[in-house]
Write a structure and sequence with these properties.
Layout (H helix, E strand, L loop, with lengths): L1 E2 L3 H12 L5 E4 L4 H12 L3 E4 L1 H4 L8 E3 L11 H4 L5 E3 H7 L5 E5 L4 H14 L4 E5 L17 E5 L2 H4 L9 E4 L13 H9 L10 E5 H6 L7 E6 L7 E4 L2 E4 L2 E5 L8 H17 L3 H7 L11 E6 L2 E5 L6 H9 L5 E5 L12 H7 L2 E4 L4 H7 L5 E3 L3 H11 L5 E4 L12 H17 L26
Parallel strand pairs: 1-2, 1-4, 2-3, 4-5, 6-8, 6-9, 7-8, 9-10, 10-11, 11-12, 16-20, 17-18, 17-20, 18-19
Antiparallel strand pairs: 12-13, 13-14, 15-16
């Protein structure tokens, strides 16, 4: 049984079919996309149940494969697990059939960028590899195919790690941890425990690439050999001095020569170099490969600069730590567009930074009024749509201002995903430019109308 007809579920089903397994897929949805995928997989030899038929299935399956977006407590899942049917995730399934080593990368922020960097830099050093996992391509799509890989570089989420058994990366990377997904986990403790499973099956033959401070203070004792990195501590194996990355005193890369900016990206680069160290790669060739790298879309992406106003798309910022990094990377006057789905954490911890850096916070989505209360005293304006937010930002941005779209939470209350959210922002900003919106002719927000200032004492 494969639970879920998303991309991971489809990849898992096809992998099993290639191995001669009798496969049934269950999905409680019946959207046009689900029904289209169901018909496609039926033609490929699978049985597919959707809607009420999926929820009523009582077959005694040998194994259930769970897609990462579905919780184990879902009504789709519990009828199977309550009957004692073993449950694993798509990542675990793919790993059991994978014939090459795995580099696995986790963390609250920077996973996608670091996965891309590591894959690119290792290719530059001669390793045939592919970036996959939570980054977009399920591991099951790359396993047992005609391609021959030296290794796979896998972005892994806490959701994927919940359902592993034997998953054992040759190199495990731990980037950072900050509040996130508290709509799924009861507390940070459970979220952290899920993430820590990346090290669970490693032995002394494997490697863990981790921040020095967390290695010394926060992480449990690791069985794997360790490589440390730090943007502040010269004792680390990989350390940052100014814009230069050093490995034990030897210069590897001047980050200013790349298209990556900010200390968080220096940390991502050091983590990628750490993977190369673990694998015995030529670090000079890795450094050369990064010089033409372009950061992924929707992460501190400059999408327009007109009339002296910079518009930055940071839709991928789905937690406070990512938002904080984005704000700290901006110089000069700043208008922030934030908000989205309620993921169970508060925005109060970042209020001092907002007070010091943001001239106007325009708030959207399910959390907009809660954020306004958390940011009492900060000039805020809750609005009903992203369209309204962009228009309001344009009316209040003067030359020299940066408009930063960094939501600080996920998109699912208003958009399909952060990509759709970021593309919508890009389109709206493009329409402003196309229509010649007179942003620079409006008054700056130094004298805002009283109606735009909302404090916690005012009604929501």
């Amino acid at each position: 049984m494969v639970l879920g007809l998303g991309r991971s579920g489809m990849a898992a089903a096809r992998l099993l079919l290639r191995h001669g397994v009798m496969v049934t897929l269950c999905d409680s949805g019946e959207s046009p996309l689900v029904l289209e995928r169901a018909e496609l997989l039926r033609r490929e030899g699978a049985t597919v149940l959707t809607g009420s038929a999926a929820l009523a299935d009582t077959t005694a399956y040998d194994l259930a494969i769970l897609s990462p977006g579905i919780e184990e407590t879902s009504p789709l899942v519990t009828p199977f697990t309550s009957r004692g049917i073993p449950l694993i995730g798509e990542l675990e399934l793919a790993f059991t059939l994978c014939n090459c080593p795995v580099v696995a990368i986790t963390g609250t922020n920077g996973k996608t960028t670091t996965t891309e960097l590591t894959s690119l830099m290792l290719r530059g050093a001669g390793f045939r590899n592919e970036a996959c996992g939570n980054i977009g391509t399920p591991v099951s799509e790359l396993v047992d195919t005609e391609e021959s890989w030296d290794l796979l570089v896998v972005e892994v989420s806490s959701f994927q790690l919940e359902t592993i058994r034997s998953f054992r990366p040759k190199v495990a990377v731990w980037l950072n941890l900050s509040p996130n997904h508290l709509d799924r986990y009861p507390s940070m403790k459970e979220y952290r425990q899920a993430k820590l499973r990346i090290f669970e099956n490693q032995t002394g033959e494997d490697w863990a690439v981790v921040p020095l401070q967390e290695l010394e203070q926060d992480l449990p004792e690791l069985r794997a050999r360790t490589i440390s990195f730090s943007i502040t501590d010269a004792r680390a194996d990989l350390a940052l001095h100014g814009t230069n990355i050093f490995h034990r005193g030897n210069l590897l890369l001047d980050v200013s020569e790349t298209r990556l900016r900010g200390p968080h990206n220096a940390a991502n680069l050091m983590a990628a170099f750490g993977c190369g160290l673990a694998l015995g790669a030529d670090l000079r060739r890795m450094a050369s490969a990064i010089l033409e790298y372009t950061p992924p879309a929707h992460r501190c992406e400059l999408i327009s600069e007109r009339d002296g106003i910079r518009w930055i798309n940071d839709s991928k910022a789905t937690n406070l730590d990512a938002m904080e990094q984005a704000i700290r990377s901006v110089k000069g006057p700043l208008i922030l567009i934030a908000g989205g789905k309620d993921k169970g954490f508060e925005f109060a911890p970042i209020a001092p930074l907002i007070t010091g850096r943001v001239s106007l916070a325009i708030l959207i989505g399910e959390m907009r009024h809660r954020i306004a209360r958390d940011w009492a005293g900060v000039p805020v304006s809750p609005v009903g749509s992203l369209e309204e937010a962009v228009a309001l930002a344009a009316r209040n941005a003067a030359a020299g201002t940066t408009v930063l779209f960094s939501p600080g939470t996920s998109s699912f209350d208003m958009f399909r995903d952060y990509i759709a959210r970021g593309e919508s922002f890009r389109r709206l900003v493009g329409e402003l430019s196309k229509n010649g919106f007179p942003a620079s002719q409006e008054a700056a927000f130094s004298n805002p109308p009283a109606s735009l200032t909302l404090t916690a004492s005012q009604p929501q």
